[in-house]
Design brief:
By secondary structure, the protein is mainly β. The chain contains 11 helices and 35 strands. Helix content is about 15%, strand content about 40%.
Length: about 675
């Protein structure tokens, strides 16, 4: 239903080649007797004219939380001749069991079994595809690496091939604050009850889950190096297993920005890659845009691999990328300027390493030698990082990194002269440095920025390195104090056009709060300019096929009503009284009434605090409230989690409460500590 006086979005599609039917409560049996709950859309005549199945398997609730995205995608596939299923993972939504952690082998076992069961159904042709964003992109790659015979193709969006270095936990050996933040959110998400309209045993199942639900931060802080825990589920451990045709998609504003290029370079499967300007969202819905006709592109992929139709998808260039240019470092933009480029090979023969030397605040061609190299020092405040944005931005606004000038002021910066001509980079920049520090544990944060003639600094890419991990992420060691070390920081994959007249800047610092948890003591960094080089992957102009996408569309109608719109705020304060810097992120997600009778109200409160001169004062907390109502049935959960530290320990604390009506029947507490291991 549309609100009174409103009209459907012009991009919404409701008329399809195949009439569709929806099954809101399909239960898939598993070998151990458990069941996975699914919501399915399929052609009305699939019982007599079987079709391939497409599945998305995530723990975020098909019945309410992700239903808006589901309804804007899966009916489209069904209307074009597929059975499209959104499956709740074991322990989530209306499925059986308890969700004990991310990406377990048992999760993959469940999905492999579900694929086999689906292939045998009378409405299925026996061929299955799998897609998803984030968790669903991860397990699409992981399950494909298991090579189930019925799985004919996958589409992975916003995913990773390396769970240690390129997820929400550790990056460059640094502890990401999202390592704890996501654990706090997961505590809330997994506390939500099954829907009593679908399960008579909802109360028993809910109580069982609440009683056995782990606080997964304990696991994640148990594994601070790249051990077997993280190698499991990281498809980069054995690319040869990835033989299923793979369409890999991400956005430059997403945290999961590296996996597309890695798959194109290393995986043996038939593959194609698309990277747009997007944050962590599907490309037909993402802001900032421009969006693309992702559903049409996905349909071309499915039709080619699951229906043996020559859609031309494999004649497209191997790698299609959006090349952004300067946008005033404005995170509020709904669309960024730029153009689509293509590469028919990856790595591309048209990309060459361009080396720039650091010296006296300047970046110059390495062979120039006119800059006067120095030995320079920096003692950055622990709260540096005001404009770092959120680690995983989902939308335009303050989640996106903004003007970097304030963060540059607490960094060692090196600029080129104004560029004589446009310069395009595509790939991973790297910075090789000779540095020393006065503490045995320290972080390096490197940013490449575009600086306009007016001085606005726009982040293009960044990378982080825990110097204890300077050799590898398996066997770190303390940093020898005041001893020059040669290290290399790899930045995220990027594509960007620097406009003539702008300057290219590289910034080096030791703090990036509240994105990276700080090292325990204030650090003085010494940089030896004579031995430091920035290497850029510079792309030469060349003729390639034009890149064209159809306009973005999505299926409808939406099956919910917004009773009360939500509100969000993100504020930073620096106290002149006590010197502390405090971040507050408040999210009221409003009230949503679903057509099947359920109402959901949710809110979150996220806080960060640190004293600039005392990194070990760092604290963060995150609380959630989730409420559900159907007629006279009312339940809600409240969760809270907090992380603090000293020089040697992390202190973790959490609480989970569940209420039926006004009666609290679950109240669980976690309070523990984990030793800091080279972080």
């Amino acid at each position: 239903m549309f609100p009174s006086g409103s009209q459907p979005d012009a991009r919404e599609v409701r008329d399809f080649p195949y009439p569709i039917v929806e099954e809101p409560a399909l239960f898939i049996p598993l070998p151990d007797g458990s069941r996975l709950a699914a919501r399915m859309w399929r052609p009305a005549d699939a019982e007599t004219h079987p079709v391939p199945a497409i599945i998305e398997c995530i723990p975020y609730r098909k019945r309410d939380a992700t239903s808006a995205d589901d309804e804007r995608m899966h009916p489209y596939f069904a209307g074009h001749g597929y059975a499209a299923l959104r499956i709740d993972l074991r322990g989530s939504g209306d499925s059986d069991g308890v969700l004990e952690d991310e990406y377990l082998a048992s999760e993959q076992d469940d999905i492999v079994a579900a694929i086999a069961w689906l292939a045998e159904q009378p409405w299925c042709s026996g061929r299955v595809g799998m897609l998803g964003i984030s968790w669903g992109g991860f397990n699409s790659l992981q399950v494909a690496s298991r090579q189930p015979p019925e799985l004919g193709a996958i589409i992975a969006v916003g995913a990773t091939v390396d769970r240690y270095h390129d997820d929400v936990h550790y990056k460059g050996g640094c502890v990401l604050n999202e390592n704890f933040g996501w654990a706090a959110s997961s505590l809330s998400f997994m506390s939500r009850p099954p829907d009593p309209a679908l399960r008579d045993d909802w109360r028993e199942l809910w109580q069982h889950r609440l009683a056995h639900q782990p606080f997964v931060a304990e696991n994640w802080f148990d594994h601070q190096t790249r051990d077997e825990y993280w190698r499991h589920g990281s498809v980069c451990e054995d690319y040869s297993r990835l033989t299923t045709p793979t369409l890999a998609v991400t956005g430059w504003a997403d945290a999961y920005v590296n996996f597309v290029a890695e798959i194109l370079e290393h995986a043996p499967c038939p593959r194609r890659g698309i990277v747009g300007p997007w944050p962590h969202a599907y490309p037909h819905l993402a802001m900032p845009g421009p969006t693309i006709g992702f559903l049409q592109e996905a349909l071309r992929w499915w039709d080619y691999w699951l229906k043996d139709r020559d859609t031309g998808i494999m004649e497209e260039p191997l790698y299609r990328v959006f090349c952004p240019s300067f946008s005033e470092a404005d995170p509020q933009r709904l669309e960024v300027p730029g153009e689509w480029l293509a590469e028919t090979q990856w790595p591309s023969p048209h990309i060459a390493a361009r080396s720039l030397a650091l010296g006296n605040g300047e970046l110059q061609a390495a062979e120039d030698g006119t800059a006067r190299p120095r030995v320079v020092r920096l003692r950055a405040p622990a709260d540096n990082g005001l404009q770092c944005g959120e680690y995983i931005p989902h939308s335009s606004g303050p989640e996106i990194a903004g003007d970097q000038r304030g963060d540059d002021a607490h960094s060692l910066t090196y600029d080129t002269d104004p560029l004589d001509a446009d310069t395009v980079i595509l790939g991973r920049p790297t910075l090789s440095l000779r540095v020393s520090v006065d503490q045995p544990r320290a972080n390096l944060i490197v940013r490449v920025c575009d600086v306009s003639p007016e001085g606005v600094s726009q982040r293009v890419s960044y990378g982080v390195l825990n110097l204890c991990h300077r050799d590898n992420h398996v066997t770190p060691s303390e940093v020898p104090c005041d001893t020059p070390l040669d290290v290399t920081v790899s930045l995220n994959q990027t594509c960007y056009r620097f406009i003539a007249g702008h300057r290219l800047r590289v910034s080096v610092t030791t703090a990036y709060w509240p994105l990276v948890w700080p090292s325990p003591y204030p650090v003085t960094l010494t940089l030896h300019e004579a031995d430091s080089r920035l290497t850029l992957p510079q792309r030469a102009p060349h003729d390639t096929p034009p890149v064209q996408f159809e306009p973005a569309v999505f299926s409808g109608p939406m099956q919910h009503r917004i009773v009360r719109a939500g509100e969000q705020s993100r504020d930073v304060t620096h106290s002149l009284t006590d010197g502390w810097t405090r971040h507050a992120i408040l999210d009221d997600f409003g009230e949503i009434a679903y057509d099947h009778g359920l109402t959901n109200i949710a809110s979150a409160d996220e806080r960060y605090a640190i004293h600039p001169e005392a990194p070990a004062t760092a604290t963060m907390s995150k609380s959630w409230r989730q409420a559900f109502q159907r007629d006279d049935w009312q339940v809600h959960t409240e969760t809270w989690a907090a992380l603090s530290c000293d020089a040697e320990w992390f202190y973790l604390e959490a609480r989970l409460q569940a209420f039926e009506g006004d009666e609290r029947f679950i109240d669980r507490h976690w309070k523990t500590r984990r030793r800091r291991r080279w972080v």
